[in-house]
Structure formats: C-alpha cells, structure tokens
Amino acid sequence: SDIGSQKERVVTEEEWLQKWEMGNIGFHKEQGHPLLQKYMHILLNGRSGLRIFFPLCGKAVEMKWLADMGHSVVGVEVSEQAVKEFFSEHSLPYCEEPVPEIPGAKMFQSTSGNISLYCCSIYDLSSSIVGKFDGVWDRGALVAVNPCDRQRYVSLMVNLMEKSSSYLLVTVSYDPNKHKGPPFYVPESEIKSLFG
Ligand code: SAH
Fold first, then answer.
1. Under 8 Å between Cβ of 54 and 66
2. Which residues line ligand 1 (CB under 6 A)?
3. How confident is the model at residue 134, as a pLDDT?
4. Residue 104's pLDDT is what?
C-alpha cells in the first residue's frame, strides 16, 4: 500500500505540547489498554522485578499497573504537563530533579522510587543514562514518531533492550491516504525491516 502521503509529515514537539495544553489527547486511555492486559504474560514471561520502558509515555495508566505488580517503570515524555498529570491523577507523591547528562531535562520520580519519568525528547536518551530494559510497551510511540525518524527511533529502542527483553508493539491499520496521522500507518513489512 502507498504510504507516500504520510512520509513527509512532521509533527513538532511544540505541536505535541499544544495538544496537551488544549486537552486534545484523544489517544489517552483512562481505563488502560486491553491489549496490554491480553498480552501481559508475554511481556513478563513469568519474570518478576523487571525494568519496563514506556517510550513516548504520555500519562499512560499502564505504568501504574506495572509498578503495582512490583516492576520498575521508566518513561519518557516531552510534555511536563503530561508527566505531572500522571502523578497527580494517581495521587502519587514525586520528586523532581535535573538530568546532568541532558541540558534542560528533568526526571520525575515517585517517592517510592519505582516510577521514573524523563521529561525530554526520547532522542536525548541513551543506555548510559537510563540503562537497559527487560520489557517495552510501545503503544502510541512508534506510530507517533515522525516517519522520517523511525529508523533512528528503532535503533535507539534496540540499544535500550537487554538480550532477553520482550517488546510489545501496538500499531493501527487504516488507509493512509484518508488520514494524515498521527497515529501514522506503519505497515507490517516496514516493522520487519525496521527491527530486523
Ligand atoms: N503512549 C502514550 C501516549 C501516546 S501519544 C499512550 O499510550 O497514551 C504520543 C506522546 O508522545 C505524546 O504525549 C507526546 O507529547 C509525546 N512525544 C512526542 N514526541 C516525543 C519525543 N520526541 N520524545 C518524547 N515524547 C514525545
């Protein structure tokens, strides 16, 4: 199928911040995502005490689910509003500190220590800053990344994964000539070539 019409599209960080300010966040699922419930066992694979990464996390309630199960959650999100709403909507006390390696970035951490949300661009992160992960929940992340940045995004994600990690990816399927995205249409063939 032809994804030509979306290939050149760019959504700036400023536009994402505006979406949060305007409350234009139709992607947020208050009840969490049914597909994570369905495939949780694949993500965890019987393991406990995992480090789970949420790229482009928004205020995804699934971060609370996994933390409550005893895992340690790390997310990254450009919108500070989103990060603060996450903690306040779950009544979680948190502290806020600068990230020495990333000028201008802040890290918000629950007082209990098991949820750390980096407020910066995902492209500022590396495994030397956030370590490696046993699992990734990618919903609204690969499909939200600008099409021109997909390879860079995927290379980073592969770098952030432990050898034994599991990666759950949610995509959407639709006619890319009828909607401009995001979410962008990422055909399965492209997912295979991106991740190898
Ligand atoms: N995964 C979340 C949010 C999906 S919407 C969920 O399932 O609800 C995509 C989110 O990515 C938005 O909150 C947007 O502010 C954020 N975002 C966009 N570009 C980003 C970037 N380069 N780095 C970090 N976050 C980004």
1. no
2. 13, 16, 27-28, 56-58, 60, 76-79, 82, 121-123, 139-141, 144
3. 98
4. 96
